[in-house]
Batch of 2 targets.
Target 1
Amino acid sequence: MTRTPVNVTVTGAAGQIGYALLFRIASGQLLGQDTPVRLKLLEIAPALKAAEGTAMELDDCAFPLLSGIDITDDPNVAFDGVNVALLVGARPRTKGMERGDLLEANGGIFKPQGEAINAHAADDVRVLVVGNPANTNALIAQSHAPDVPADRFTAMTRLDQNRAYTQLARKLGVTVNDIRKLVIWGNHSATQYPDLFHAEVNGKNAAEAVNDQAWIENDFIPTVAKRGAAIIEARGASSAASAANAAIDHIYDWVNGTPEGQWVSAGVVSDGSYGTPEGLITSFPVTSTGGKYEIVQGLEIDAFSRAKIDASNAELAEERDAVKALGLI
Ligand code: NAD
Ligand code: LMR
């Protein structure tokens, strides 16, 4: 392999998403089959041994594209020279924890990680935040990396998009390959808005193809928006393989570009498009060309969609105000 390896940092590497993600990265699915990778695993000290165990298994796969693995509990080491950063590790909500406590605990993780990215990352660094609350954690990290272009910080809503594809395909008796431009607006939370009004099914408008507003409002949107909770209920643990899969999709498309005529969903820094508060990291329809995600412009937003998008962004603005009040941004 003659190409210089791409440095990929995964935080929370010993967690369940980490376990589902690392082998796919090392096998070439994140960046492509001609790109060698060097993995940098960041964990907290008590989980370093488990991360070492995962690294042993990675060794035992003899992946041709895997040029090395570093394991550390120091963000300054983990983000040194990083090209792709997957911020997965986060503090889950535990019993008795208020929303403010959760935001504060995560601030303690994403502030130093943002600072370390600012100080040590490669010039082309791209960051995807998976750890919840993903959009606001991304905002915290981004606000502590003033030397990194803000558009390099993104939050994951691709899992929500993938969930929406399957729900729509089932409803219409088509396959996911027949669907295009089905995207998520807003927060990765129960207020998110999966948008059928701009989506297409075999070239036809998806909302028209469904022709059932009650199903859209009372079934499709809540099923997609509450799928994370339904998985937790069923599995006794939050989604892991599907989250890892979505992270792969998000980075692969960012680096390699989205197919002609296709849109995807990503939480990106708002430039004020569609009346969304500037500076929030919120999900939009985006395309990627030349390694850059750009917000799709010029879409007409009807009153139904407007209300849904505004409600989700209002929730994000509240989260932003809460972390501001805590001095985290
Ligand atoms: P997990 O608890 O199995 O693993 C999290 C790991 O992060 C643990 O190994 C923990 O030691 C580590 N960690 C904690 N603090 C850290 C720090 N400061 N630095 C480095 N590592 C640290 O959780 P999981 O199932 O892998 O999920 C990870 C996160 O992803 C959660 O916040 C979850 O809610 C979120 N998630 C997001 C989406 C999405 O679509 N955006 C989907 C699923 C899960
Ligand atoms: C998911 O969407 O599966 C995760 O964000 C888990 C959750 O808490 O909803």
Target 2
Amino acid sequence: MTIEQVGVVGAGQMGSGIAQVCAAAGLKVTLCDLNQEALERGLGAISSSLARLVAKEKLSQADADAIVERISINTDMAALAPAQLVIEAATENEELKQKIFRSLDEICQPDAILATNTSSISITRLAAVTQRPEKVIGMHFMNPVPMMKLVEVIRALQTDDAVFQQVTALAEEIGKVPVDVKDAPGFVANRILLPMINEAVFCLYENLASAEEIDTVMKLGMSHPMGPLALADLIGLDTCLSIMEVLYDGFKDSKYRPCPLLVQMVDAGYLGRKSGRGFYNYG
Ligand code: CAA
């Protein structure tokens, strides 16, 4: 089966980025979200990302227009029926993802591959809610998707080797570097990254230094492009907390305990860039 048409579920920052890179590689993309406003915001994010690339002369205006034309938006998941591959990029909530996978299983052609961009949830458990567990796989992109080269490709226990090969080839076709990773809480990227971010939040909680100073330590001391607290704001503090909870529940190890300040910030609705306030303020 050749993959020419891709469906993306969820028009947030990850879903819109995934739609953009797939369309940039010449694939036809249907971007689905229950919420029309989210779809329009997603398309807006794609347009501004493409505009940055045009301004930097990395892309012509004609190519940017062609990319946007290859993306259609829809609030009805039934529009995903013709896709050979659907990538789910909804909120990091297992119940919601299971519900989406059950619907996709009914809507999509029997040989379509169902992938999830989950950042930590078990691919094996998601595969198990479908009638096609051998065609379910993890494709974990990094934020911002157009800039970051990595895709973790995560096989469920049930995934066919042929599906793994096809998804790995597709990740390369869209300009990414796939890494073969086993299915375990947080996979590899977030198993390493999130405890670091959580520890940075503990440093702030314990008043060891200000947010700016903590970030400066990691930027200037370790050559990280962004400090961990600014990165947490980019990822979304709700997503960071969900991933820490998956690590904590999955490994039953107190070293993954979410920092109480992270929990409080999420309770307060301070979710980072997307809500205008996190460890920093965004005008
Ligand atoms: N679309 C297009 N271009 C973009 C862009 C976007 N969304 N975001 C940034 N850029 C471009 C800029 O135009 C700029 O281009 P030039 O190099 O040609 O000038 C370049 O990227 C650098 O951008 P900036 O100068 O604005 O800022 P920067 O140098 O700090 O780079 C960054 C921005 C690429 C985001 C960099 O800060 C970075 O790599 N940060 C770390 C990101 C990271 O760690 N991501 C992983 C998060 S974890 C995750 O996603 C997994 C999970 O499940 C939680």
